Amino acid sequence: MNVEAQENVEMEQELEFAASYRWQHWIRAVSIVVLTVTGFYIAVPFLTPAVNADPTNFMQSLIRSWHIIFGFVLISVIIFKSYLFIFAKNTEMERKALKDVINPKIWIQQIGYYLLVSKHPKLNGVYNPLQFMAYVTFYIAIFVLIITGLIMYVHDFHQGLGGFLYAPMKSIEVMMGGLANVRVIHHILTWGIMLFVVGHMYMAIYNAVFGKEGAMDAIFSGMKWHKKH
Ligand code: HEM
Fold this sequence. Notes:
Layout: H1 3-8, E1 11-15, H2 19-43, H3 59-87, H4 92-101, H5 104-114, H6 129-156, H7 161-175, H8 179-211, H9 218-221, E2 223-227
Antiparallel strand pairs: 1-2
The structure holds protoporphyrin IX containing FE.
Residues 32, 35-36, 39-40, 42-43, 64, 67-68, 71-72, 74-75, 145-146, 149-150, 152-153, 156, 183, 186-187, 190, 193 line the site of protoporphyrin IX containing FE.
């Protein structure tokens, strides 16, 4: 198709992501950044509080409290997102992606698209199968991060929610081989999340550049462009 013909293709805007979806995406993104930074600080506390006559600077506790606050923000937003995925009317396009995941033809075409040898497959849902599986892996990692985070949390706070969750978390801690293992799993998964974020941003930019449908715009404005049919 020459440039002139390409310019004449009529495009129309369609709603891709509703406001609730966009809000939870950005709250989750901010929480993940804060949790990664504060988490690495907890692992290697590289700042020395200013020396003064008062020995109670509690720098580690301060960073840990922000980590836990954003941990609970993340937990809330993941529960909300799961509710949206399963029940919300305006997320039907997400659920429809399951249809594409079980279709081998779409898998082959999608891999071909990324290798620049075939056209993008016509999808039923809003995610391609590779993308969908990457998100499933991401959710499993976040789920284990939440559980391991809560196990460490119940050792910090023994009353209220900490006390209530102590018994179930203790059983999972034992199954994981003790608190030291729990910490290591939590730490390794942080690296997994960082890899995901880099891949996720690369793919989003790739799709926006090669797809020419405003794929990146959709997570800000909600709207994506499609060829008029
Ligand atoms: C994206 C999600 C998360 C990331 C990337 C993350 C990252 C980290 C990292 C790197 C550490 C340090 C581990 C070490 O000592 O080597 C840590 C510790 C910890 N995290 Fe998370 N975390 C996440 C979610 C959570 C959640 C949901 C909670 C629960 C509320 C939580 C609670 C904790 C606690 C209690 C500690 C231990 C603090 C201490 O040792 O004093 N984290 N986290």
